[in-house]
Amino acid sequence: MCRSILAALVILFSLSNSDNANSATLRGGVLKSTLQGRVLNLSTQVGTLPIRYRANGTMSGNSAKLAKYVGFSNDRGRWWVSGSRLCQRWQKLFDKKTICYSLSKSGNNISWSGGGRSGSARLSN
Q1: Chain-centre distance for alpha carbon 78
Q2: Using CA atoms, how far apart are residues 104 and 82, in angstroms rounded to an integer?
Q3: Domain spanning 2-124 has what CATH number?
Q4: What's this model's pTM, rounded to 2 decimal places?
Q5: Where are the alpha helices (DSSP H) in 1-125?
C-alpha cells in the first residue's frame, strides 16, 4: 500500500514549474512568517490541494480528489523551517517521512522544489 500511495503522490505532485524570474527565495523567519496562518494552494494535475499552515507548527490538507489516489481525503502533520527550507512530516502521506522544500515567492505565487518534485502554488488566507 505504501508504494502505491507514493506512486500516486508522485503523479499528483508532478507539477509544472512557474517562471522564477521575478521571485525571491524564502528563508528563515521570512519563510516562517509567509506561511504561518495561511493556506498554500498546490496546483496539481487533478486540481488544487490546499494545505493550511498554523502558527503552532501543525498543518492540514483536505481534498476529496486526493482520496481517489491515496485512499484518504485528509491528513495532518507538522511543519517547521530549517535554515532556508520548509520541512514537513505528514501523519499518512509520504510514508510519514520528513521532506524539506525550497520556496520562492513572487506576489502570492510560490514555486517549490524538494523531495524529487517541484511545482507551483498560490498563497491565500
Answers
A1: 12
A2: 15
A3: 2.40.128.640
A4: 0.80
A5: 2-12, 28-35, 64-70
